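Student:
Attend to each token:
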Amino acid sequence: MSRLGAGRHAEDAGPAVPDGLRTSVHELTTADGAAVTGVLRVPAGARTVVTLMHPRQDVTHHALVPYLLAAGHAVWTQGSRSPNNDLNLLHEQALLDFAAGHVFLRDSGFGHVVTLGHSGGATLAAFYCQQAALAPGDRLATAPSGRPVALRDATMPEPDGAVFLAPHPGQGALLQRVIDPSVTDENDPLAADPGLDPFDPANGFREAPAPAAYDADFVARYRAAQADRIRRIDATAAALVAEARSANRSFTAHPDAYQRRRALAPRLITVYRTDADLRNVDLSIDPNARPYGSLFGRRPDLTNYGLVGFGRLSTAAAWMSTWSANTTNADFRRCAPGVRVPTLLLEFTGDQASFPSDIAEFTQALGATDLTVDAVPGTHFGRPIAEGAPSGNELAAAVVEKWLAARVS
């Protein structure tokens, strides 16, 4: 039997690397002094560069890279200050990381810089576009926890265009969709309220892979309970932030070794069971062409209890900045009106995290007057929907290349 998470990512290698490709690795310094790295690939004669970044993941080998290179575009894949480690991820700091890459690309002499955000990278790019378009003094001065951020001091060039591929609504809004509200004890990964258990047959679940069938009343109670659980964790995060501030004040007043340790000691938030979006097992809710299963595997009733999942471990400041739907600034819909550069919004028709209702909402919210909305068959990570069909990434790349060709020379 294949492992539970098998088949998440697309396996197509894409076209061959073009002859004459130059590849270089660069370390950059952000406006607040952090170090970030990126990989620049430049085909001969390239004048346009497409930049990819994700707040939590390494995108060096993103599936669209070879397609963009084959089309003659340079590609910049950038990491954050803590790639593949979101324990203390502040989206406001990730914007400073992203900004350093944009400054580097402008200074490198490219004629056009276009950002391509996939999944959570799309929300990061929308957040960046929103803040970059503001006068420096109007940008955010702090993260939601109150921690100062240097956005007002940073150079933040706007891109010449933005591609949003399979955008979900943001890490916080996404977590509220997938969090299991039946948890009754945040310290016990197995504690459950049977009346809210999404994988209890009494509530409409059927043994996988038969689709579940939840009634409207259960769906409404479930979603309300998801929001309630997020609010309870918000309260915990706020209390931990207040405790940290108190410790820092105590250290300032009494700078002895104990107070210094107290000021430095983290209080981490552990969140169990975050793979429980009803839509992943009841395909009649927000219907599209998605297969049964979630982003994390084909058996959400099992992976929900496993190690991998969104927002599983974080500092209180990271919870408030990234994972809380109520306090995060990185929300696609709220950032979308500030995106005014030419924009391509591209949907995968079998997406398990970005649904038709999301795309409709984002279409209405985006501020760009030059807005193209399109869709191609594929799952969230660009796998084909049907066996033997072209991959979603191949089809998406063709749409992106056509859109770029009409806007850059």
Remarks:
- Residues 360 and 373 are 10 Å apart (CA to CA).
